[in-house]
Design goal:
It is globular and about 55 Å long. The chain contains six helices and no strands. About 5% of the residues are buried. By secondary structure, it is an all-alpha fold. Helix 3 (about 60-85) crosses helix 6.
Length: about 210
């Protein structure tokens, strides 16, 4: 009787034990598309909580990566400008303009200030037009966000592949940090809580 019971238990266990093929299939299902792409780094690895690229679409991935790079570049400039004006540095004639978010209503108060805002808008428009892949010329971008268009180089083509990957990783991570950074700076300014050295709160006239 004991032998029969033992045999039944072994048979039941064998019925529920996964085969080698099922294990391979499970591993394949757990593997994420693009998990080895640039930017998928420890400790999070490929961070896609909304499953935007779960379908494995290369076109969608490249589009989102281009957006990420562009927003990161803009935010790096934004953080630099925010901290520069917070340090009291101004263009000649703009010494009375406060820094932070209060600069916009201050500029709107005068004709010269309104002209400055119009110039900023014109610059943003031109920058958006220029900083994109020129599809009308015979040039293939090396990677998403490559806007050199066969004209600008600054020595990039002289780097080996390892150096290029390192520099692209640095840009991507700095852009991610800047996106969080400018959001943190603006949020704390709106809350009236300083996170700058000396407890300085932007929005004051120097």
């Amino acid at each position: 009787m004991k032998t029969a019971i033992l045999a039944s238990l072994v048979a039941s266990a064998a019925a529920f034990a996964p085969t080698q093929q099922n294990s391979a299939s499970t591993s394949a299902l757990q593997a994420k598309p693009f998990e080895n792409e640039l930017g998928a780094m420890t400790p999070l690895g490929l961070f896609d909580p909304l499953g935007l690229i779960a379908d494995g679409s290369v076109e969608k991935f490249n589009t989102l990566r281009e957006y990420e790079l562009k927003h990161g570049r803009i935010c790096m400039l934004a953080v630099t400008g925010y901290l520069t004006t917070a340090a009291g540095i101004r263009f000649p004639g703009a010494e009375s303009i406060p820094d932070g978010l209060k600069s916009f209503p201050a500029l709107l108060e005068t004709k010269d200030g309104q002209n400055v805002l119009l110039q900023m808008l014109a610059f943003f428009t031109v920058a958006e037009i220029v900083n994109r892949d020129a599809s009308w010329i015979d040039n293939e971008p090396e990677f998403p966000g490559d806007y050199r268009n066969g004209a600008l180089d600054f020595g990039w083509d002289n780097f080996d592949e390892k150096t290029k990957l390192k520099k692209r990783t640095i840009e991507l991570n700095n852009g991610r940090a800047a996106m969080m950074g400018i959001w943190g700076l603006v949020t704390h300014e709106m809350l009236g809580v300083s996170i700058l050295p000396g407890g300085y709160l932007p929005g004051q006239k120097h």
